Amino acid sequence: MTTALSSVLLPIALAAVAVVLLLGLINMMRGGSPNRSQRLMRLRVLLQLVAIAVTMAAVWAIGR
């Protein structure tokens, strides 16, 4: 379980956060819809929560 969390799920979660962040920046630079920017920001915050939860689960599993 520890290997799956730290070597598979964590990079996926971090990559998802980075992709959504880049999409938000691109939307903002192009002068896109403010509604889309809000949606992307909310999605980014949710994905950050998931990434933190996966990180904490991996740290907990390693410590066991």
Automatic annotation (TrEMBL):
<dbReference type="InterPro" id="IPR007667">
    <property type="entry name" value="Hypoxia_induced_domain"/>
</dbReference>
<keyword id="KW-0472">Membrane</keyword>
<keyword id="KW-1133">Transmembrane helix</keyword>
<feature type="transmembrane region" description="Helical">
    <location>
        <begin position="6"/>
        <end position="25"/>
    </location>
</feature>
<feature type="transmembrane region" description="Helical">
    <location>
        <begin position="45"/>
        <end position="63"/>
    </location>
</feature>
<feature type="domain" description="HIG1">
    <location>
        <begin position="1"/>
        <end position="64"/>
    </location>
</feature>
<protein>
    <submittedName>
        <fullName>Hypoxia induced protein</fullName>
    </submittedName>
</protein>
<dbReference type="Pfam" id="PF04588">
    <property type="entry name" value="HIG_1_N"/>
</dbReference>
<keyword id="KW-0812">Transmembrane</keyword>
